[in-house]
Structure formats: C-alpha cells, structure tokens
Amino acid sequence: MVTYITVDSTTTGVGKYAKDLYMLLAPESKIIQFIFNDRYLDNFYKQPYRGFKSTVLNYIFSQYAFKSGIDAINSTSDIIHITSQTMKPMFNNRKMVVTIHDIIPFNRNLAYTQIMEKLKDAYMRSYVRKYLTYDNIITVSNHVKNQIITQFNINEDKISVISPYITDNFFPIPDKELLRKELGLPENKKLILSVSSNAPRKNLAMVKSVMEKLDNSYRLVRIGSRVGNSITFSGVDDEQINKIYNACDILLFPTLEEGFGYPVVEAFKTGLPVLSSDIDIIKEVSDGAAMLANPMDILELTEGVYSILEKKEYYITRGYERAKYYSPENIREKLLSYYKTIK
Fold first, then answer.
1. Which is nearest to 219 in space by CA: 206, 204, 229?
2. CA distances to 47, 93, 339 from 74, in Å
3. pLDDT for position 59
4. Grouped pLDDT means (10 residues each) for the chain, 343 residues
C-alpha cells in the first residue's frame, strides 16, 4: 500500500499531482491531507488530519499537532510518498519517497515587499534541504533534476524523473462554435487562452502587454484571476476547463519558471496550439510541439501569435503526438516499476 501525503488543495498544481497519483494506483493506494491552513480544505479528501487552529503553530509544532496521524501512517503504510515539498518533514518510515517539483524558492530574483513571503520562502528552503537527504527522490522533469544536482551536489542515483500524467478528462471536442455559445464566448474573435495563478513568475504583465499590441479581432480568455479586460473563469472543474481549451485558438503561456507546466500538455491533449517560453523546462516538456519565444520580448511574442495561427495544423498534430508521452498508462508503468526498487 502506497500512502500519498499532501497539504494542498486539488485546485493547485501540486494538489492535482497528488490526486492524480492516488487515482492512478487506487485501490492499492490511499491519500491523506494534513490541514496546516484551512484555506486548503478540500472535499476530495475524506478524512484529513487537522492540527491546531493556528497555521503558524501547525508548522512550528507539526510533530505534536499531527501526532495521531503521523503515528497511524508510519505504522500502516508500506511506502509513504510525500507529494508536497512545502510540507514540513514529519515521517520516519523506512520506505520514504518525496517529489521535488521545483527549487524556485532558491532562485527567486523577485524582491518581496512582505516579510511573510520572505519567511515562507525561508521555511520552504529548509524543508527542501531536508528532503534532499532522502534516498528516494522523484522530480517531475530532467530540468529540475539537473538543477538539484548542480546546486546541491546531490548524487544523481538518488533522483528519478517521473513526469506527471494528464488525465483523460482532456480531449478534443469538434464543435468550437457550439462550445463558444455554451460558454458565452465571442464567436467572431480569435481567442487567446491564459491559464495560471497570478504569481510573478507567470509573467501576466507580459500577457497583458501582448494583448494590448494585438488588434480588436483578438480577445483574452483567462482561467484564474482577471488580466485587463479578459473573459475570466475561476473555480471551474476539469470538464469546464476542457471545454474552454477546445473553444480557444491559442494557449499563451510566457512563464519565467516552472517545475513542469501542466497547461502546456493539457492544451496538447485538446488540440490547442501552444505559444510558450524558450526556457529549459518548456523545451523539455514540449519537445518541439510548441512554438517558443523569449518570454520578455513583447515583439517576439506578438509575432508568435500571428505565426502560430498560420501554422496551427502543424502544432495541433505535434501536440497530439507529444501528449501520448504523458498518458496515464505510460506513467503508471514507470511509477510501479519505481516503487518496486524501494528497499
């Protein structure tokens, strides 16, 4: 029995990752959420472990706040897989696995104005340093693995790359016009989709600038927070997100840093051409199936919008092919093989 441990809501990328792994191996797996902060409460988790009412106390005194849950999981799990690197290390089971999604807190070039953000980053860095002492580490990309080896001088034999998979909830739907009517989207515009949080590394200021360069035949559709005069969707499930992908003409994803980049591959599966950043992680994930541009060059991105529409059939075909690599069947086989090696 593999027990997946998370602190994240399934609405986040890391929470989605935990849920997807659990669903991939169920019923030979279980998933447990530890509630450090009530804002991450999620009805998907049937019996979460709750700590103190204070988030700060939960992090400082984790071993006491969650003692019953820690003891129960340590004694009943064959393998414990920590899926949230933002969770304080608390377990001592011999067969431990941790997924390191990224090392962004170590490489931020962004000046924070809030002391709490600086404090949070300091804690996150301390957790990752502890997790890097584990013998069984998974990264979601070679990009992250190489960063860890380079920056922390970690033995590469401890690190295995197993990508997330993209669920079959994402697939092509043929009638774009009907979808736009259903979603209340304009039928006579070229729709550019942006999917992300509003974290600075998502580069939403550049998305806004690109839209301002385009004429009024283009319209921005956002899944997340509003950008400019975007048509905005929030709190939507996979079924609705799949429809939005299918209703749009381009995914614009000029990110500055990712651990993986779910929207890129989700777009591939739905047949939506992708214009993204020419950074190492996106090059790896897309493997030639996306058009890439300098995420800080507004002219290059704007020209990319025009160019990808002219070559959309090429990128649709390449995207479908690349998405096969991230199929549930492929990742399940890799994951099961990996767990068999843990001693």
1. 229
2. 16, 5, 17
3. 79
4. 90 89 92 84 82 82 86 89 91 89 79 64 88 95 95 94 95 96 97 94 96 97 96 94 98 95 97 98 97 98 97 98 96 95 87
Q: Cα separation of 230 and 258, whole Å?
A: 23
Per-residue pLDDT tens digits for 197-232: 998 899 999 999 999 999 999 999 999 999 999 999
**Pair 285, 136 in one domain:** no
Query: What pTM was estimated for this model as a whole?
Result: 0.89
Report if residue 231 sits inside a domain: yes
30: domain CATH number? 3.40.50.2000
* Whether residue 112 is found in the same domain as residue 222: no
Name the amino acid, one letter, at 42.
Answer: D
Under DSSP, the state recorded for 271 is T
CB-based contact 143:281 (threshold 8 Å): yes
Cα dist. 127→15, 139, 143, 207 in Å?
18, 15, 20, 33
Domain membership of residue 170 (yes or no) is: no
Classify residue 171: in a domain, yes or no: no
Same domain? For 256 and 231 the reply is yes
Range of the domain at 80: 2-165+328-340
For residues 73 and 23, what is the distance between their CA atoms, to the nearest angstrom? 19
Contact 315, 308 (CB under 8 A): yes
Tell me the one-letter amino acid at 339. Answer: Y
As a whole number of angstroms, the distance between CA 237 and CA 83 comes to: 21
**223 and 201 in a common domain:** yes
Quick one: tokens of 210? 């690109």
Start-end of H helices in 248-286 = 262-270, 280-286
Judge if 182 and 149 occupy the same domain: no
Are 124 and 182 in the same domain? no
In angstroms, the Cα distances linking 46 to 1, 83, 235, 286 are: 18, 18, 20, 35
Number of domains in the chain: 2
